[in-house]
User: Fold this.
Amino acid sequence: MINSEVGTIMNETDSVHPVWKKLIKKEFSISLSFLAGKLLLGKLQVQYGTEPKNLVHLARKMHDLYYLNKDLPSVKKDIELINRER
Amino acid sequence: MSSRLYCPEELSDLIRAGRVFCIAAEEQLLKKLPRGNWIGGSSPYFMSDQGGVVSREKIFATDLTKVTTGFNITLVDEHELKKVYTNTPENGFTCLILPSMSPVHLSYALNASEYPDFAFRPVIGWVSGMHLFDLGEKSAKVVHGPTGEISSDKGVAMHVTLPPEMMCDIGMVNIFKQGTDDILEFPETGFHAKKVFVNGEEKCFLDYLKSKRLNFKLPLIADSAGAKVNASFQAIDPKEKVVKFYAPVFKGATYRQAELLDDYATEFIRNLPASSERILLSFNCILNFLYSELEGRRIGSIAGPVTFGEIGYVLLNQTMVYLSIYLREEEGSFISQSQ
Assistant:
C-alpha cells in the first residue's frame, strides 16, 4: 500500500533511493513526526559527518526503520513529506 | 480506564487474578503487593483523571492485560540493559523503569543510542524517584513483580508482545523551543559541566550562567533532527564551580537555552495530544508537575506516574512521553472499545 502512495522510495529490496541519502546529508530539511525516526536521523547525520563513506549503509538504515514501521500514522505522514523531496 | 489510582487491597486482588500491570507507588506500598505479572517503580506523584496527585496511600497502575499476548519481565543490570532494544518483541514494546541516579540510569542516559537495534524497537519508560521530602534519605527503587525482588541499582523491564492486529508508537510532548541566544557546546559528556564553549569561546559555565542570569526553569536544548532533547538544570555547586543536570549534556551536540514561556502551565496543556483515547502509557516529568503546578489540576484524561526522567528510546527530561496503540488498517481507537 505504501509503495503505491509514495512511488519507489519505500521498497524492501531497493532501499537506497537517493532521497534517503539526501536526508542523511541534510540536503533538505523537514519536520518529522516519528520520534524514532528523528532520533535515528540525528544519530546517522552525526555518523555521516565523521564517516561519509558509509552513506549507503546509513541511508539503508534510515529506510529500513521507516519500512519496518510503514503502517504507523506518524510514519505515513513523514513518508509523504520525504516523498516530496524525491 | 486502563490507568488509574488503586487502593492496595483492590490492586492486590487483581494481581492475584493474573492481570498484567505497570505500577508506581511509594516503596512501602510496592513491598506489600503480592507476587505476579507486574513491574513497579517508586514515586508518590501521579497524574490521574482527577488531576495531579501526591499520595503515600494510593497506587497508580496501568492494566496491560488486554494488549498483551505475551510478556517477559526481567531485572536488568548494565550488561543486560544493552540488549533492551534487541529483546523487545518484533510487534510490541518494552516498558523500562530505572532507579534515579543508579548505575543503569546513568549508563542508559549516556549510551542508549549506541545499543544494538536502537530506535528499531519501541522502548518507553520512566526513572523512579521518591517524595521530594525524602531526597537524600531514601533511594529510588524498582520492583520485579514475579519474585518481589526490590532493587535500587538494577532496572526492571517488561517486554510486551502486542496482538497481531495492534501496533504502537511513542510520542513526546516537549513544550520548549530552542532560543536564539548563544550557542553552547560542552567539552565532555556527562551529568555535570565545569566548562562550556560559548559561541566557540571556552568559559567557566557557572560564571557564564551568573553573568547571563539564566532562568534555571528553562532547559538547555539540543536538536536531534527535530527531536528536541532537554538537559534540565538540577543544581549548582558554587565551591566546585560545577553545574549539575538531570540528564547529560553530550560532547559534540549543540545546545541553546529554551525560549522563555509566557505561561508554563498553559503551554504544557496546549501541547498535549488532542486525543488521549489511544494512549496506553504516559510518563510526565516532575519538573512539569512542579513548574505547571499540576497538583489538583486536571490535564485532560492523560494519566500516569510523575517521574524523575522519561524514557522514549533515549533518556529524556522535562517532557511527557506516551505510548499510543493503533489498530492496523484502522484509524479508530481500540482502548475505548475494549476496556
In short: Residues 35-50 of chain A form the longest helix (16 residues). Residues 1-6 of chain A have pLDDT under 50 and may be disordered. The two ends of chain A are 19 Å apart (CA to CA). The interface with chain B takes residues 31-32, 34-43, 45-46, 64-65, 68-69, 71-74 of chain A (CB under 8 Å).
